[in-house]
Amino acid sequence: MKPTSVFCNCKDSCSEETNCNCIKRSGTKFCFTDVEDLESYRLVAKSVNRPTYECNDQCQCCASLCGNKLVQCGPRKGLEVKLCEDARKGEGVFAGDPIANGSFVCEYAGETISEKEASIRFKLNAKHRRMNYIFCIDEHFGDNSVKTFIDPTVYGNIGRYINHSCDPNCSMIITRIHDNIPVLGIYACRDIKTGEELSYDYGISDLSGGVGELEPNRTKCLCGSTNCRGFLPYDSKIM
Fold first, then answer.
1. Which residues, 6 or more positions from 143, have their beta carbon under 8 angstroms from its beta carbon?
2. In angstroms, rounded to a whole number, what is the distance separating the alpha carbons of residues 27 and 186?
3. Where does it mainly reside (predicted)?
4. Does residue 219 surpass a pLDDT of 70?
5. pTM of this prediction?
């Protein structure tokens, strides 16, 4: 895989003021309370339909001070995996400390696999009634569509335990770092209280009402939100 063509010549920490190429390409804006504490950085603006380009090995900025390297620093401190209050949901990820809107939470880390391998694993999971964690990133470049499949089942991190909600407190942002293979960064999309369960929307379903009849094997959603769609999103791209 070729290295990403986006890199910067900034000194010390990157920001809009330093005219950082990576931040300009991303259309992002950060704020922070302590330049040396990456967990104090918050994403306050993001251009729609653009991936985030983090500073990478080709950049000249200072690794210890650059706030545009959040995904590379691993999950934020204080995240806890424990059983949910609704036992049917199993385990979930909870905030051990308050998390401000726009803060990086963790990467949805896993193996990058081919579409063929994703389909094989998906069918095996369904056959043996195992949880499916495979996530498809479907990007469009003009008339071309590029799919990237991430499976954290064996090689992953705490991100795989974050449950779905139809009214989530986190969102995913496609991110590129050292090369053109995208990764998924999970960010808080509102202020999260200590002890609150983290969640993101597994996908937008275009099915409603008759979902049960159309897909009898759909998994019932247990998020409990007032705008619950009834079933977990169903991704036909990995069938």
1. none
2. 17
3. nucleus
4. yes
5. 0.88
